[in-house]
Write a structure and sequence with these properties.
The protein is built from two helices and six strands, in the order E-E-H-E-E-H-E-E. The chain has about 100 residues and is of the alpha+beta class.
Length: about 100
């Protein structure tokens, strides 16, 4: 009988890194309709590198306190770390470490 080739499930596998397998989630909700515009979940290790690079180029990104974010990441905090209402753009931005 012929053997089946091994299936590559690497795209569906979560590899815990130095951050213990934690994730960074950003959810943006339209304040008028309540509909979710953005719901992104990234491995925390990717975010750590991105925050360090981003702080070099833009110390203040549209109401996002990069220093507060970097501090929460460094302390290993979990749960909601930012809750921002932007009335001008009609957005509610929530940032979590889970």
């Amino acid at each position: 009988s012929a053997k089946k080739p091994a299936q590559d499930d690497s795209a569906n596998t979560v590899f815990p890194g130095r951050d213990g397998g934690k994730f960074f989630r950003v959810r943006v909700t339209d304040t008028d309709t309540g509909r979710t515009r953005v719901n992104v979940r990234l491995p925390l290790g990717m975010v750590n590198a991105g925050v360090r690079m981003g702080m070099r180029f833009s110390p203040e990104v549209e109401g996002l306190d990069a220093a507060k974010l970097a501090e929460a990441l460094a302390k290993g905090e979990t749960g909601q770390i930012m809750d921002i209402y932007d009335d001008e753009d009609g957005e509610h931005v929530e940032v979590y470490i889970e």
